[in-house]
Design a protein that fits this description.
With 557 residues, the chain is mostly beta strands. The chain has helices at 21-34, 430-436; strands at residues 55-56, 62-64, 69-71, 202-206, 210-217, 228-229, 255-257, 267-269, 332-336, 344-349, 354-356, 389-393, 397-403, 414-415, 462-467, 471-472, 481-486, 490-493, 501-509, 516-519, 523-525, 537-545, 548-555. The two termini are 37 Å apart.
């Protein structure tokens, strides 16, 4: 090997010879010099130096050739991570990528060519000096100094706040819902479907039988025209529809004056004044149809009779003894006439200061408030018992709870020690189950005895579910074999459960897999194996001994 020269020229390091410490020191020093950074073994492909190193990484994942630096398997390696990043990159050629995400500002010194659709969700804030030949769907806040030569077939929903100095030669087939606040100095050959004002204000004039004029109308707001109808321009009977009355005829008991002529003012008299505030007296009045009283109805006779099939009263309160002004003395209420049977009453007794219903029973769905009199019968329903009761268990099982019916209750039951005996024959199926069990080997593993386990075992992995946020701290509870799904960025923390143990976690990435942050481990190995690629699988080996925790990551693809 280049860089190393055998030092034991006397061949002292051989079977049967005396080997001095100097012999070993010289050999070790020469071997050390062979690996010196500047003078040692080079691996440059020259004679004695060894072949160039073309594959590096824990699994020889990175391949180096004379013209390319490539991963061993496509779409498996990342350059840097979100937490450990390279500073700058210089490329003299073409950058071909499926997706480009720029988290900060980006500057293009040459021409930016986009063969697909360019979507600017944040808007275009600079000046566009070239030609725009495709669809423009975002906001343009700078100046458009070039020509728009293509058709704008989509809706322009953003605001154009800069100057459009070029010619718009294509068709605008979509809707312009934003504001154009700059100057349009190029040729605009299409029609505007909507506008806030006309370029030239116009006058609107009404002529004919109705005249009126408003000046300076530009569409910028609503207008109102003051109109005038020409005198004698509308002839009754010729220019109107419906009937009209040329004269009035007086009936019996009615006097009529000024009853004819277009400008006449007819006057009707019935022998007494009739006005909105006048009192009119009739000896008797019979209404064969409906009678509607817009004001108050006062009946001052002795008895008022109402003989109808149904009495409808729109008021929600009926007042009895309405003329009582002093201390009440008279009873009031309702009496039901029952013909040959005794009448029934519901009366307010002023002397007793209570409602009375005679000897009749009152039936109702429910009553609110206290009932102070004697009540017989049972309540069909109630929300609670008037007096709470205790429900107690005694005998072999004891327990008690207070219950008033307001809610469900649970009794904590206690089985009295030695209160009952069980024999196998009294437990259905127990003897059969015991007979089917395999005999117990006396050689059983014990916690306090060293032993040799000659048989293998299987276990079902504990499913800890999908981790998409927060912190996941695994623990041996449920089993030392576990499986999880990486469904988003989360923190994997070192286990804190007491004791010494080993955990094996199988993890699979889904389409939402995120970056995993490690926390609390004494040592981590092969952290770089973790990816966020959908479908990638990993083994996470965790060992906790004497308070130290180690994490080893193994990629399964």
């Amino acid at each position: 090997m280049a860089g190393y020269t055998r030092q034991d020229t006397a061949n002292n390091i051989a079977n049967g010879n005396v080997i001095d410490a100097d012999d070993f020191d010289a050999e070790y020093n020469s071997i050390e010099a062979g690996f010196n950074a500047s003078t040692g073994h080079k691996h440059d492909g020259t004679s004695g130096e060894g072949a160039p190193i073309t594959k590096v990484g824990p699994a020889q994942d990175l391949v180096v050739s004379g013209i390319a630096l490539t991963p061993k398997t496509t779409n498996t390696l990342d350059i840097g991570t979100s937490s450990v990043q390279f500073k700058n990159a210089w490329l003299d050629g073409t950058l071909d990528t499926d997706a480009l995400i720029v988290s900060a500002n980006a500057s293009v010194g040459g021409t930016l060519g986009v063969t697909g659709v360019l979507t600017a969700t944040g808007g275009v804030v600079g000046a566009i000096t070239g030609n725009v030949t495709g669809a423009l769907t975002g906001n343009v806040t700078g100046n458009v100094t070039g020509d728009v030569t293509g058709d704008v077939t989509g809706a322009l929903t953003g605001n154009v706040t800069g100057d459009v100095t070029g010619a718009l030669t294509g068709d605008v087939t979509g809707n312009i819902t934003g504001n154009v606040t700059g100057d349009v100095t190029g040729a605009l050959t299409g029609n505007a479907d909507t506008a806030t004002a006309w370029v030239t204000a116009r006058d609107i004039t009404l002529t004919g039988d109705v005249t009126g004029t408003v000046s300076g109308v530009n569409g910028g707001g609503n207008i109102s025209i003051a109109t005038t109808v020409a005198a004698n321009s509308v002839a009754l009977g010729a220019d109107t529809t419906g009937d009209y009355v040329s004269s009035l005829v007086a009936g019996t008991g009615v006097t009529l004056t000024n009853n004819s002529g277009e400008t006449a003012t007819p006057m009707v008299a019935i022998g007494q004044a009739v006005g909105t505030t006048s009192d009119v007296t009739f000896n008797d009045a019979t209404v064969s149809g409906n009678a509607i009283v817009q004001g108050n109805l006062t009946v001052s006779g002795t008895t008022t009779y109402i003989d109808t099939t149904t009495l409808n009263i729109g008021d929600n309160i009926i007042t009895l003894n309405a003329d009582e002004a002093g201390t009440p003395s008279a009873n009031a209420g309702i009496e039901v006439e029952r013909g040959t049977e005794a009448n029934k009453t519901f009366i307010w007794d002023e002397a007793a200061d209570k409602w009375t219903a005679g000897s009749e029973a009152i039936v109702a769905g429910s009553f609110e408030g206290p009932i102070t009199g004697a009540v017989t019968g049972n309540a069909d329903t109630a929300s609670t018992l008037a007096t709470a009761r205790n429900i107690a268990l005694d005998g072999d099982v004891t327990g008690t709870v207070s219950f008033n019916g307001s809610a469900n209750v649970s009794i904590t039951a206690t089985i009295v020690d030695d209160s009952h005996n069980h024999v196998i024959s009294n437990v259905d199926g127990l003897q059969t189950a015991l007979n089917g069990k395999e005999a117990v080997d006396v050689e059983i593993l014990k916690a306090d005895t060293d032993d040799n386990l000659t048989a293998g075992y299987t276990a079902t992995a504990d499913d800890d579910g999908t981790k998409s946020s927060g912190t996941y701290t695994p623990a041996p509870a449920g089993g030392n074999l576990k499986r999880i799904i990486n469904g988003g960025a989360f923190t994997l923390a070192a286990p804190t459960a007491a004791g010494d143990y080993t955990l094996v976690i199988q993890m699979t990435n889904n389409a939402s897999a995120g970056i995993i942050t490690l926390s609390g481990f004494t040592r981590t190995i092969d952290e770089g194996y973790l990816t966020t690629t959908d479908g990638h699988d990993f083994f996470l080996f965790i060992t906790k001994v004497n308070g130290f925790t180690s994490l080893t990551i193994q990629a399964l693809q």
